[in-house]
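Holo prediction — protoporphyrin IX containing FE.
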Amino acid sequence: MTTTETAPRMPFDRPDVLQVAPLYEVLRREGPVVPVRTPAGDPAWLVTRYDEARDLWGDPRLGRSHPAPEDAAKISDAAVMGGPSGRYETEEADHTRMRRLLVPAFSAKRMRLLGDHVQKLVDGCIDAMVAAHDVSADGVVDLHEHLSFPLPVAVICELLGVPYADRDYFSDLSDRISRMSGGDDARVAQVEFAGYTAKLAAAKRIEPGEDVISDLVAGQIADPTFTDADLATLAAGLLFAGHETTVNRIDLGVIMLLTHPEHRDALAADPDGLAATTVEEILRLSAPGGLGLVRYAHEDVEVGGVTIPRGDAVILSSPSANRDNRHLHRRRRVRPHPAAQPAPVVRARHALLHRGEPGPHRAADGVHHAVPAAARPDPGRGRGRPGHALRQRHRRHLGPAGHLVSGVATKRQNGWPAGSA
Ligand code: HEM
């Protein structure tokens, strides 16, 4: 039996950025919850299987904070998810407040406005890429430079009300913050990031706009306990959460399609029919970080025959859970028709993220429109087909919860074998 001393240390070796570590499959067979060591060398519980990861993700007995942070297992030296975050005493209330503050910011009206704008941004990026291709001596253009990076950054700037001219500055900060071995520099960058958003908030106080930071500023009037420091932290968190993630998924999604030409061709032949499931698969299979979500047990939690003691670190492994064949096979068995859409699962995912309530998480659906549009192979040399129908579908089927532990399989998706990407 594996003990803390013999437990494997994360991150596990992976063959390349498209594949997850083969050890995940071994550990999944060993059990739904297995002991591991974090990249920092501390003990933690790794949740390997879909059902347990999904349940624990929505379980209020786990949190991001720790009852005694100085005793908590460290995950890594990263400034984000490197250890416990937030205040144990107020985590639930802080989280509820965050969602309440973000609801108007991600309203249907705002998402509609943003959706039209995103389509224009996609067209602009693709046009620039085609123009660069036309003058390129070797016929090569950089997708990351022309699409994967500028598109999500432009979208998040628009959503939050951040000047696009500052994109390189905040991208550099966000890059420094997200490094797993970021150490002190990552924390310095985090403080600088909060300072940058504090300045933006001050400007919005004088001249508010139709954007999230202006909403947060307005939220302060209704809730005086929401301090300037809280606002700066939340705005910086959104800027960070909303851009790095999406940039990665566009890059990885395109590589997945290029390495699976049969899917690329099928999608090119039927973009309206296949875009939603293709994006869902990209979100399910992409695992840029390779770790998963970090939580701490706020009380003893019994799961999969294991008791996780209060205070222990828990890593909900989305890379592993998303490739759990038990779940994938079950879904294939129960789905009455191969084309049936997985709406109930999506609803469950939203509920999970919001701990049982519908909430601002629909939020990111609007921003996620950037992903399918970008990942869609171009039927007319770069020009996307009208995105409206596509966007409607994504609104129904995508959600930030889904991209974590989704694992939705339809017959159409089955050609992307679990573990292959
Ligand atoms: C493909 C792109 C994205 C991916 C892969 C992604 C991934 C994630 C993950 C894994 C979490 C859960 C973290 C945890 O529970 O510890 C999360 C939460 C969150 N994300 Fe995203 N995200 C994406 C895009 C966005 C965008 C564009 C925004 C907003 C502008 C956003 C805002 C948020 C917020 C506010 C939360 C916290 C929700 C809560 O705790 O209730 N995300 N995202």
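READOUT: Residues 23-245+285-338+411-415 form a domain with the Cytochrome p450 fold (CATH 1.10.630.10).
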